[in-house]
Amino acid sequence: MTTVIIAVIVAFILAFVIGVLLGFFKKIFAVPVDEKAQMIRDVLPGANCGACGYPGCDGFAAACAAGEAPADGCAAGGVKTAQAVAKVLGVKVDAEDHVVVLACRGCKDNCIPRGLYNGVKNCAAAHEAVNGTKMCQWGCVGFGDCVDVCRFDALSMGDDGLPHVDTKKCTGCGMCIKACPMHLFFKVPVSRKGAVALCSNRNENKAMVLKTCKAGCIKCGKCERVCKKGAIKVTDGIPVVDYALCNSCGTCVEGCPTHVLALVENII
Amino acid sequence: MNQYLSIFLKSMLVDNVVLIQYLAICPFIGMTSDTGKATGMGIATTFVIILATAVTYPIYYGIMVPLKLEFLETLIFILVIAALVQLVEFYLKKSIPSLYSAMGVYLALITTNCAVLGTTLNCISKNYNYVQSLVYAAGTACGFLLALVIMSGVRERMKSSTPPKFLQGKPILFVTAGLLSLSFLGFSGLIK
Q1: Is residue A8, in this structure, part of any structural domain at all?
Q2: Are residues A22 and B75, on separate chains, in Cβ contact within 8 Å?
């Protein structure tokens, strides 16, 4: 019986001493934790994916609190996380959701196949082997590599041979942008208004463009001329819109002879 | 001197903690996916094993033997080791933050590592004196580090090979561990 009592007492004393020691040492070796970093860390997804370029969520939170990383730097968290982080930091972010747009209108009717392609049925292979299957070597190959990589079911192959974006499902993750060998997808913020060029043909030869695709940009420069704000510049063979100037009047869309331009608010 | 050398080599090679005593299999499998990780884990464990032995030995012979509480050794040793690892963690966090962030995760894992507890209990059951215990702990820890580094080296080589499908992943790892263990049996009889 005495052994049991002694054992209990000893265990109790030992635990007490260790507890006191630990508490004591915790005070001595206390490290001032950056409260901001901790708060930021709490609103992050905690997946430690490293997409922000910092070593895990802790690294990003520390960098964010120190002002080195932008509040909207967390790619996995999206707008919600960006706003939560911005709230902690007391700044404003204009982060918003993005969707992708396909810069090609070379459907079956507009852009005919160059020949019979019997190779591997994916865009990357067709692009590597024969520079695409259609007359236009800048256009959509049409085997749906983008559809395969989309994890949100936002892309589907239409009957016209072009992928279609379901903008309600699209999260703007950018997987299709990476997958497309022709680099035809680009991200736009959902609130964007203004004209956008839906062609990627950079051939400066007007006759060649007309021969390859009915919906190709023929570099006539009419959009540049009709725009009252001077918001459009044909750069590298494609009309590029300056959204700081564009007021979404639609003059260029009406003026474009091959209907390359469209108002982005109408297509997303 | 000779005696210490023989204890060191025996605990490191002949009675290797992982491959012969089959302790600490979890870090042996879980922490050896690359050599850097394995080395970090090995060094952290080395440090804790030696420290734990240095602390538990006086507690055992100073407190528990006079009070006839030898049967409590498992309980009290675990308590002491866990507290010790916590202390080390506090200290590192304050003094050497870079080292803390480098091995912070491993440190917490070592709290429940059976190699640490096993070493401290072995020192008692082998009736070593204090210096012998420390040498034994150092040898065991080096053996642990050695086993982890060897295994991680083998695994890095294995990454570029294609085992049959039914062996891919963990099965080939256990087969490898068994072969390593067999090869370490070759050291038996090296030291009497």
Answers
A1: no
A2: no
CB contact under 8 A, A11 and B91: no
Residue B170 lies in a domain: yes
Q: What is the pLDDT of residues A230-265, one digit of tens each?
A: 888 888 888 888 888 888 888 888 888 888 888 888
Given an 8 Å threshold on Cβ–Cβ distance, is A22 in contact with B63?
A: no
Q: Tell me the nearest-neighbour CA distance from A25 into chain B, angstroms.
A: 7
Determine the distance in angstroms separating the CA of B55 from the nearest CA of chain A, rounded to an integer: 13
Range of the domain at A146: 98-190
In angstroms, the CA A253 to CA A197 distance is 9
Which residue, among A262, A258, A267, has the nearest Cα to A246 in the 3D structure? A262
Mean predicted confidence (pLDDT) in A81-88: 82
Q: What domain count does chain A have? A: 3
Q: Over the stretch A98-150, which tens digit does the pLDDT of each residue have?
A: 888 999 988 888 888 888 888 888 898 889 888 888 888 888 988 888 888 88
In a domain, A20, yes or no: no
| pLDDT confidence bin for A84, thresholds 50/70/90 | confident
11-30 of A, contacting B, C-beta below 8 A: 11, 14-15, 18, 21-22, 25-26, 28-30
State the complex-level ipTM.
0.70
Residue B82 lies in domain: 2-185
Nearest CB to B67: which of A6, A15, A18? A6
Does residue A3 belong to the interface with chain B, where contact is any CB pair within 8 Å?
yes
Per DSSP, the residues of A1-45 read -HHHHHHHHHHHHHHHHHHHHHHHHHHHT-----HHHHHHHHHS-
In a domain, B96, yes or no: yes
Domain count, chain B: 1
Residue B157: inside a domain: yes
Kindly tell me the burial class for residue A160, based on how many C-beta atoms sit within 10 Å of its own C-beta (0-12, 13-18, 19 or more). middle
Is A13 a member of any domain? no
